[in-house]
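The instructor's notes for this session suggest beginning with a concrete chain rather than abstract definitions. Hand out the sequence below and ask the class to guess, before any prediction is shown, which regions might be ordered.
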Amino acid sequence: MKKKRIFIADDHDIVRRGIRPLINAESGWEVCGEAANGREAVARVLKLKPDIVILDVAMPGLGGLESTRQIKRELPETQILIFTGQENESLVHQLFLAGARAFVLKSEGADTLIPAIKALCEGQPYFGARVSRIVFEQYLRASTQPEQFSPDGLTPREREIVQLLAEGSSNKEVASTLGISAKTAETHRAAVMKKLGFKSFSELVRYAVRNHIVSE
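After discussion, reveal the predicted structure:
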């Protein structure tokens, strides 16, 4: 039987070190690659084409939400398992819309992570106990007063620009990271500020935190 190939993306080495032996100890599973930031994760996943990606949300350069969008757009058959310390209703909703099909919290540990991987191997979604409660509460509210999640209207490239700027990158550093000219980076920044209606950089940072593009 062909082994299930699993990729781990987390900016903390200790987390990757902890997950790796748990996966390799399971019959029919293997860790095929790792990454310490979102941009590296997307590039390596698109090259390796794993069956499952274990993905943190708060990663430098490119967060888990945008990483999920980019991976699912190119590899719709690859399953995304969100393994994070962040517990937020809006974030859960956005990640599921982006294509994630399993969501567990790091505080729930291996007792939840391994069953989540097994569920994805069988083509089933999986929520940890606390995330299940969030999803259920969303359902109850939607049955009486549907909640609207308005898209921000930003393109994938603009969301990348927002994250890099909010993390403190200069226009020159943004240009270097994305492989574009400094003038193009400056043009993107101006377009984002205009599209979102912001007049100050602090507004952009607050927006990035509020929308889980960067962590506090």
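Then share the key points. Residues 22 and 209 are 32 Å apart (CA to CA). The chain has ten helices and six strands.
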